[in-house]
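Exam revision sheet. Question 4 asks you to relate a sequence to its structure. Input first:
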Amino acid sequence: MVIRLAAALDVPLRQQNVLLLAAGFAPVWQETAFDARELAQVRKALDHILAQQEPFPAVAVDRHWNVLTANNGTARLIAFLVGPLPPDAKVNLADALVAPDVLRPHLVNWQEVVRYFIRSVEADAAADGSADSAALLARLLAYAGVEAAMQECSTEAATAPVLPMHFRKDGVSLQLFTTIATLGTPQDITVQELRIESFFPMNDETEKTLRGWAIS
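Answer key, structure tokens:
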């Protein structure tokens, strides 16, 4: 009955386990390590998706925006903005976006972008009610300038169908919008919480630049 009610209410698998424990039952959903043998085919599918996105950036992240894998387009973009990263570098996209000294210096419309992003993190924290999601939100809100950005409200009419991320560095202007995809019919917590974020050029200039990097 607990599982049926949770499914009817579209409760995520992680929270279904919490409900089962509260009702006196053992959890039924596993949380498999991303690099485990059992997820080999999932990782293969992710590699295929990310490769199809070339030469544009794409990443797969966990529920707290830790990068699990990324394509070459992402590596080229990061190398241009902040310099090349070591192969084993641990990257959290949330911190990279919100912190004052990573992407922010090159993100022209940082305040607009961070408002949208923080709202999504707030929604995640409210949905799962976990201490680690709350800690992530608190950490992001503690960065300088974030609280002020959240209090502002733009009254200008939107000039584009989606809000781009507008990067500018060394005379190069890049405008990108993103899509976020998830895996269907998950039966594992790790798999359900995977997000695939793909970046697309907002204009011809950006597309030309990204394609040029891929062949240079």
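Marking note for examiners. The CA atoms of residues 49 and 58 lie 9 Å apart.
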